[in-house]
Amino acid sequence: MALLETWRKLAYETEMDQKNASEFWGSYFNQEKAIYEQILANPDTVVKGTVKELAEKFGVEVLLMTGFLDGINDSLKTPNPIETMDENTEVSLDYDKEKLYYNMVGCKADWLYELPQWDNLLDEQTRKDLYKKQKLSGTVVKGKKIGRNDPCPCGSGKKYKQCCGKNA
C-alpha cells in the first residue's frame, strides 16, 4: 500500500472518538507548524530528499511527513508524485510563496498563515490581497432579480412575464 493511501486511511477513515481525534489532529498540526516554521525561515533554500530523510530532518514519523507532503503539494512549483511515493521517493519542497499563503487561507489554517515568518516573505499588502482574494473565491454573488414587468433580458423587447418568465 502506498504511503499516501496509508496516511489517508489513518487520518480520514479511522474511527476515532472526539478525544482521540482531538489529540491526533492537535499533534499533527503542532508538528506541521514546526515544519513550516523551519522551511519559511529559509525561503531561499529548497528542501529536497527522500520522504524518509525529510521525516528524519524534521523529527517526525514518515507517515506524518506524508500527510505534510499531501497538504503542501498543491502549493509546490513542481508537485511531488504523492500518489505513488514510498519512503525512498525523492521529493522537493520548492514552494510558491503566494500560492502557499493563498492555500493556507483557503484551508482556514490560521496557525500557519499567521506565522511571523511570513513577514519576511510577503509584504503586508500582498498578504491582505491574497487573503481577500481567497475569501472572495468562495462567495456566491447573485445577479439582480428580474421583475415581472421588467424588459426580458433575452432582448425580445417584451416584458419578462410575457416572454422567458412565462414558465418560471
Automatic annotation (TrEMBL):
<dbReference type="InterPro" id="IPR004027">
    <property type="entry name" value="SEC_C_motif"/>
</dbReference>
<protein>
    <submittedName>
        <fullName>Preprotein translocase SecA subunit</fullName>
    </submittedName>
</protein>
<dbReference type="Pfam" id="PF02810">
    <property type="entry name" value="SEC-C"/>
</dbReference>
